[in-house]
């Protein structure tokens, strides 16, 4: 028999949701409104004087070749982080789900990276890939690859992609593992009895049943690559060499806090917010159609 919670007091439900509403208003709607307001202003570096300029900040942005190039950099970065991060996490989850002896040890090791802060992740990978002192860079030199993320833009992009994937892989792994463990083993055993091999069983049974989890993680990873990777880039490449790794969120910081152009920085924040909201809506409208919830 289904049980439903009933509140005897009329004000109690509102009291329970008030903290979440306040947090949302304070940390999302208020900053978003401030960004919208500041995006139509030109301000000095200290924010003491301002001039209303309508949409001049946005026009200047889309006439800036460096800003347009950062779109390409962000798209390439986010696609690689989402695709390779989800793929590797799924492979690890599949192998971890099959392990019987010492399974908890493997799972614990795979979860640990999520507890590390993004700045520490950036510094860790910066040392590992350092052209002169890095262990991985030294191993690459031994096989004939001259690694130098300080001068080579492609190497710098690979560095931040690997660091971002390593930071997020534990989060993806947990959800994939939970999804795998929720799949009835009887379905897989029945397919095996019918003669389906491991690969066919995975793509015809396991992966379709994981589609809700995969869709959720796709949305999360796109948002993660757009916003939460700022600290990794700041700790490793600072958007360089040149502007090869300057994604949109880092350019907001670079122009606003280092360049002192608060109006342009606010306009970039608005554009970034619109892009992420649009991508999320498109994913729910088109990608979710292929998700099987039963």
UniProtKB/TrEMBL annotation:
The chain crosses the membrane at residues 12-30, 75-96, 108-128, 156-180, 201-227, 266-284. Keywords: Cell inner membrane, Cell membrane, Membrane, Transmembrane, Transmembrane helix, Transport. Signal peptide: none annotated. GO terms for biological process: transmembrane transport. InterPro entries: MetI-like, MetI-like_sf, UgpAE/MalFG_permease. One of its GO terms (cellular component) is plasma membrane. It is found in: Cell inner membrane; Cell membrane. Pfam families: BPD_transp_1. Residues 71-283 form the ABC transmembrane type-1 domain. It is a multi-pass membrane protein. Belongs to the binding-protein-dependent transport system permease family. The complex is composed of two ATP-binding proteins (UgpC), two transmembrane proteins (UgpA and UgpE) and a solute-binding protein (UgpB). This is sn-glycerol-3-phosphate transport system permease protein UgpA. It comes from Noviherbaspirillum saxi. The lineage of its organism: Bacteria, Pseudomonadati, Pseudomonadota, Betaproteobacteria, Burkholderiales.
């Amino acid at each position: 028999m289904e049980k439903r919670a009933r509140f005897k007091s009329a004000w109690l439900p509102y009291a329970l949701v008030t903290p979440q509403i306040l947090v949302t208003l304070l940390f999302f709607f208020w900053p978003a409104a401030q960004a919208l307001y500041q995006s139509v202003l030109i301000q000095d570096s200290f924010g003491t004087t301002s001039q209303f300029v309508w949409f001049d900040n946005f026009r200047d942005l889309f006439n800036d070749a460096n800003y347009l190039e950062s779109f390409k950099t962000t798209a390439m970065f986010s696609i690689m982080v989402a695709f390779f991060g989800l793929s590797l996490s799924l492979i690890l989850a599949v192998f971890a789900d099959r392990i019987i002896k010492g399974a908890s040890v493997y799972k614990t090791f795979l979860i640990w990276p999520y507890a590390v802060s993004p700045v520490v992740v950036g510094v860790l990978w910066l040392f590992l890939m350092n052209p002169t002192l890095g262990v991985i860079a030294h191993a690459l030199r031994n096989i004939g690859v001259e690694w130098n993320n300080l001068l080579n833009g492609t190497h710098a992009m690979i560095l931040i992609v690997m660091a971002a994937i390593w930071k997020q892989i534990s989060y993806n792994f947990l959800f994939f593992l939970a999804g795998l463990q929720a799949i009835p083993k009887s379905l897989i055993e029945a397919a095996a009895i019918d003669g389906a091999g491991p690969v066919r069983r995975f793509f015809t049974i396991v992966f379709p049943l994981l589609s809700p989890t995969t869709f959720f993680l796709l949305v999360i990873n796109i948002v993660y690559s757009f916003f939460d990777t700022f600290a990794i880039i700041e700790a490793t490449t600072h958007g360089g060499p040149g502007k090869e790794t300057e994604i949109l969120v880092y350019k907001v910081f670079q122009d606003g806090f280092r360049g002192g152009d608060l109006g342009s920085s606010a306009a970039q924040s608005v554009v970034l917010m619109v892009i992420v909201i649009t991508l999320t809506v498109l994913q729910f409208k088109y990608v979710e159609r292929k998700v099987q919830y039963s």
